[in-house]
Amino acid sequence: MSSDGANPGVLSRMDIHQILQYLPHRYPILLVDRVLEVLPGERITALKNVSVNEPYFPGHYPHHPVMPGVLIVEAMAQTAAILSFRTMDSKPDDKSVYYFVGIDNARFKKPVGPGDQLVIDVTLTATKRGIWKFSGVAKVDGQVAAEADLICAVRPTPQ
After folding, report:
1. What is the pLDDT of residue 105?
2. pTM value > 0.90
3. What is the Cα–Cα distance from 19 to 32, expressed in whole angstroms?
4. Sign (positive/negative) of CA torsion 153, 125, 142, 83?
5. Catalytic residue among 25, 60, 63, 64, which?
6. What is the rounded distance in angstroms from the CA atom of residue 97 to the CA atom of residue 112?
7. Cβ contact 135:65 at 8 Å
8. Domains in the chain, ordered, with CATH?
């Protein structure tokens, strides 16, 4: 049983309060609002509600606001981090850092704007010696907005 009371091997939802236990990120860089399901060691589906009040919209095309692609990929990485911590049955602490260390095959297929709901699906593809590999897809209204292969690493906090 994980420390948030969820069985680590069962699909479960997570609200923002539970997400904050698994991610060190906070506003304005926290990019996951809800987890719809997580199956530790396999996959996770999360949501990012894209609001007109996002801090990047005034500067990222004021005449046609678009969520920056790098932030969509960051949302995938944060979703992957939640999957990793749920898989390890642990939470972030001050003794280690979860780094986003690589992006491969990133493609941006559809602009994401105010009012969109980004559905983020991440699948764990490999893990070895603290290196985690994932495949991520972000969709809006069932259409692929972005996809990428992600590499993350857990390392001791630098002293």
Report:
1. 98
2. yes
3. 8
4. negative
5. 60
6. 29
7. no
8. 16-156 (3.10.129.10)
